[in-house]
Amino acid sequence: MTCSQTITPQVTGDGHGSRPLAICVFCGASDSIRPALPRAVQDLAKGIAAKHWSLVYGGGTRGLMGLLASAVVWSCGAKSVHGIIPRAMIETEGGVVQVPNEDRFGRTTIVSTMHERKLRMMQEADAFVALPGGFGTMEELFEMTTWNQLGIHHKPIVVFNIEGFFDEMLAWVKKSVEYGLIPADQASIIVVADTADRVLEAVENYRNAQGRYLLDWSISN
């Protein structure tokens, strides 16, 4: 099965012309996960395939990362998945870099640093979706959220709240608004969905939050 059809999703972020939308997914790479998580990831992969979108992800082959990448490759082919991973995180044997199998996980780009990884993800993706994960997932989610807040990008950010995984994080956002630490009209930068179908719907219907800072980053070049 292949995803050869090109569509133009109605996303109110950065323009992507007539090419398929590229969705960047942040998620965990641990193998010790609850059964509900793989099921939700499979549902998300099916939804991405049904819409003929492409996947950008962190380049891992284990846990939710590997499961999602391999599921999208199975449905859409290796060209539909792009993993971006720092050299230090690639397993090595005898000093030789072992690049993930392209036929199973899609193409892989090896970068030097974690920051370069996130920058490449931001540049290639049209939207960001966060699944349950650990420190790395949360760091990626909040950096992309901050970049949206500051006007570095204007792309959708959606949290897939499987079994209420992100409830405490969302409570922290609400508390930060109550304390005046996050402007109330910026809290909606992060949109929440609890099923794969609703995640993809949220991406398509995303509207950028009011009150973002929209700084002029051209003066930094």
Descriptive tags:
221 residues; alpha/beta; Rossmann fold; seven-stranded parallel beta sheet; two-stranded antiparallel ribbon; 7 helices; 9 strands; 36% helix; 16% strand; globular
Give a description of the structure.
With 221 residues, the protein is an alpha/beta fold. The chain has a single domain, classed as 3-Layer(aba) Sandwich (Rossmann fold). It has 7 helices and 9 strands; from the N terminus they run βαβαβββαβαβαβαβα. Strands 6-3-2-1-7-8-9 form a 7-stranded parallel beta sheet, with helices on both faces. The protein has a two-stranded antiparallel sheet with strand order 4-5. Helix 2 links the parallel strand 2 (54-57) and strand 3 (81-86). Helix 1 crosses helix 7 (196-204). The longest helix is centred in the N-terminal third of the chain and has 15 residues, at 36-50. The radius of gyration is 17 Å and the shape is globular. The N and C termini lie far apart (44 Å). Mean pLDDT is 89; it is low at 4-15.
Chain-wise SSE layout:
Blueprint: E1 22-26, H1 36-50, E2 54-57, H2 63-76, E3 81-86, E4 92-93, E5 96-97, H3 102-105, E6 107-111, H4 114-124, E7 127-130, H5 135-149, E8 157-160, H6 167-178, E9 190-193, H7 196-204
